Amino acid sequence: MPRRSRAPTEHEWIRRLQTRLGPQPPAVRVGSGDDAAALRIGGTTLLVTTDALVAGVHYRPGWLSPRALGERAYRVNASDIAAMGGRPLAAVMALEVPRGIRAATLDGVVAGFVAAARRHRAGLIGGNLARGPALAITVTLLGLADGRVVTRAGARPGDHIVVTGELGAMGTAVRDRRRGRPTPLPRVPDRVAAGALLARVASAMIDVSDGLVQDLEHVARASGVAIRLAAARIPVAVACRRRLGARATAFALTAGEDYELVCAVPPRRLAALDRLAPRLGCRLSRIGVVGRGRPAVTVLDGDGRPLHLAGGGFDHLAAPPRRR
Amino acid sequence: MPRRSRAPTEHEWIRRLQTRLGPQPPAVRVGSGDDAAALRIGGTTLLVTTDALVAGVHYRPGWLSPRALGERAYRVNASDIAAMGGRPLAAVMALEVPRGIRAATLDGVVAGFVAAARRHRAGLIGGNLARGPALAITVTLLGLADGRVVTRAGARPGDHIVVTGELGAMGTAVRDRRRGRPTPLPRVPDRVAAGALLARVASAMIDVSDGLVQDLEHVARASGVAIRLAAARIPVAVACRRRLGARATAFALTAGEDYELVCAVPPRRLAALDRLAPRLGCRLSRIGVVGRGRPAVTVLDGDGRPLHLAGGGFDHLAAPPRRR
User: Fold this and answer.
1) Nearest to A321 among B115, B126, B131 (CB)
2) How far is CA B72 from the centre of its chain?
3) What is the pLDDT of residue B22?
4) What 3-state class would DSSP assign to A75?
5) I need a surface site. Which of A17, A122, A200, B160 has the fewest CB within 10 A?
6) SS3 of B12, please?
């Protein structure tokens, strides 16, 4: 079921480029292809991730206040650090600014970013400013992993799949916006504390940025396992259910931009997970299991039949921009 | 002598944003406002810098091959690490790619980057890929400082000013290109080894990215000193002299993009500098002295009269794009 014809998808591009990275520095513990890279430096594990928000691509002008944009730029990166079990330390921000931008806009972006970072005692330690055709905020966030670093590659048959929070709210808001309904865009949740707790029990973890199914496919591929999800167990956001009715679950599975954490947990650690759960600060749902087989993600309906999902998760390079 | 009317300049913007960075993490040793930030991590000094190359802003399509672009994206960042006396360790690259970009273009960018990084045993450990209106390559480069970290702030009256290599070649090539003459753009020099050696004797160091005078103004301001340069001692590139004749020195002082290192060296370390000089791998010129007085940079001609410089160095946000 090809979703596009000729142009490589974002992940095909990324995989292509990943084969061209050349020799990795000896300090590298986790390289490209996970939520963040991990470097061993002076007895400490440093995490590094980078993510960009580009006006007209990741959001449309007017959809987010400058402060909300700054918070979002921080949190989408913090989500990657959280998904490794780390805590944010310091960030640099490279801004491309179009001609005629207002001082208040950049001030707002920085203020929103700094306020969000401060919650983690992280800080903005530098940056770059260049003219560009559209406002683009590229953040590189460094983090520290005090405990184990959890990658996408550790899921084993028998593990359970759990996800934090709820899915589909952002996708629903974006869908509304594109149809002219001014639904506020939900904030990116702060799952840094949850990620550090989940890292104690998880065998694999990833954040839900491109859509639950697509992101779990990365886990399936990196771990060499098959993942089965129960549609009835997916924690679909109320707003998504209300707006999409019977199609809400399928929508929430592929909409993306939820920035929740999904992880695999070995059966022997389920008791520990239950003890941790009340401290996560958010809902936690068991949604599936890990099995043997060709790396893939299957979603089963109440009768055990595979659900057909229309969308395939967000892909930057496939179709014309279809989001925000 | 105001160079523009209302719009803040790049450096005014940067200074404005620097006042808004909020609390800095305790690990920070050097924060925003230097070539790179420095963090103390696990007994090691980590350097962090970020810089972007945006098509249509930093270069025009066709001026640089994809490989040359990738090398340049690496080296402009390595130059910042070199200017702190550090060595590059690992980088992440955030790409914004316009619709219809060819696979060979991105492959070339990555290949050029990786080849340049390999010379320093540094590696590309991750990245991000997003659609954007123009090709933009934002690199964050991490480095390690094994010895002293040299900032912009240590210059003292009596110090000498020295600069590596030659100035004005890139500015001349860009000027030619803008006039339709296809002069090849020179490569960004690799001054990483030179920077580590100079860090042993320098009281302050910066790389020449925006133009020698403008960059030394940062040193003057950060150090609270006045800097006097002798025009006759400026190492002007042959191509620049040939093309600009009598105006070559003034041009080379402000053209920028040279990515040479300029530093202040205390008199007591001049003998050590002379011993280091043959190992720098490039020319080294004594071009001026540090004095007391209002932080400023003055260039004196052969008769001791201040030179009037037309340009003021590169400013991203002031005028319409006038470079590559």
Assistant:
1) B131
2) 12
3) 83
4) helix
5) A200
6) helix
Q: How far, in Å, are A61, A90, A116, A245, B240 from residue A112 at the CA level?
A: 17, 15, 6, 34, 45
Q: How many residues does chain A have?
A: 324
* Cβ distance of A142 and B42 shorter than 8 Å: no
Task: Give the Å distances, CA to CA, from A54 to A93, A97, B130.
Answer: 13, 10, 8
* Min Cα–Cα distance to chain A from B248, Å: 27
Six-digit token pair at A124? 């903005």
Q: Do B48 and A16 touch (CB under 8 A)?
A: no
Q: Chain A residues with CB inside 8 Å of B44's CB? A: 41-42
Calculate Rg over the CA atoms of chain A. 19
CB contact under 8 A, A54 and B130: yes
Comparing CA positions, the residue from B269, B183, B255, B171 lying closest to residue B212 is B255
Contact B316 A106 (CB under 8 A): no
Please choose, from the candidates A158, A155, A147, A267, the residue with its C-alpha nearest in 3D space to the C-alpha of residue A203: A155
Residue B75 has pLDDT above 90, yes or no: yes
**Identity at A84, one-letter amino acid code:** M
Provide the CA A170 distance to its chain's centre, in angstroms: 12
Cα separation, A278 vs B88, in Å, equals 43
Average pLDDT over residues B39-46: 92
- pLDDT over 90 (residue B19): no
Nearest CA to A208 out of A198, A200, A197, A219 is that of A219
CB atoms B131 and A25 under 8 Å: no
Picking from B167, B239, B174, B177, the residue whose alpha carbon sits closest to that of residue B207 is: B167
All residues of chain B having their beta carbon less than 8 Å from the beta carbon of residue A138 are 50, 52, 94, 128, 138
Minimum CA–CA partner of B95 in chain A: A52
Q: For the sheet containing B136-145, what is the strand order? A: B28-30, B37-41, B44-54, B136-145, B87-97, B123-131
Amino acid at B206: I
Query: Whole-prediction pTM value?
Result: 0.92
Whether B23 sits inside 8 A of A122 (CB atoms) is no
Distance CA B301, CA B313 (A): 19
Place of tokens 């992101």: A215
pLDDT at residue number A4: 38
Instruction: Spell out the residues 6+ positions from residue B88 whose beta carbon is closer than 8 angstroms to its own.
Output: B77, B78, B81, B117, B120, B122, B141, B142, B143, B192
Chain pair A-B, CB pairs under 8 angstroms: 244
Run of H or E residues at B159: none
What pLDDT score does B100 carry?
87
Whether the predicted pLDDT of B215 surpasses 90:
yes
- Backbone CA torsion sign across A191, A196, A199, A205: positive
Closest Cα partner for B45 from B104, B87, B2?
B87
Which structure tokens are listed for B146? 């094994």
Residue that is written with structure tokens 């003055």 in the block: B298
**pLDDT per residue as tens, chain A (324 positions):** 333 334 567 777 778 788 888 889 889 999 888 999 999 998 899 999 999 999 988 888 889 999 999 999 999 999 999 999 999 999 999 999 998 888 899 999 999 999 999 999 999 999 999 999 999 999 999 999 988 899 999 999 999 999 999 999 999 999 999 999 999 999 999 999 999 999 999 999 999 999 999 999 999 999 999 999 999 999 999 999 999 999 999 999 999 899 999 999 999 999 999 999 999 999 999 999 999 999 999 999 989 899 887 655 555 444 443 333
* ipTM of the complex in this document: 0.90
